[in-house]
Design a protein that fits this description.
binds zinc ion; alpha+beta; 12% strand; single chain; 4 helices; 3 strands; 3-stranded mixed sheet
Amino acid sequence: MRAARSQNTAPEILARRAAHRMGLRFRIHRQDLPGRPDMVLSKHRTVVFVHGCFWHGHADCDRAKLPKSNSKFWKNKIKRNRLRDRRVNAALEDLGWRVVVLWRCEIRSLDAARARLALAFESAEQSLSN
Ligand SMILES: [Zn+2]
């Protein structure tokens, strides 16, 4: 069973706005790719996921702290989510896609999202300015 995943969350929209302003072209939520990436940049053969720190178990992140009650349940749940993420990434890489993960804690503002995307698409940006 796949966990329910909400779409068009605030961080996703922020990431899209940032990508748009950088002149990156993308499609959203392509159904035909594993894990239904949040953004697909075909030209760069790259997919982008915006991951919630808690649900995807961001390592060493304040936002990923587990609740004290029911901790065993949460631990297992997050562990399963992380395994699924790993399977999805591997499947995408097998298909020749590069996978970029943006954690919510990294993109708290539009500027932060742009900076993060600039890192991921440095080569893309260079080719755009040439
Ligand atoms: Zn985080």
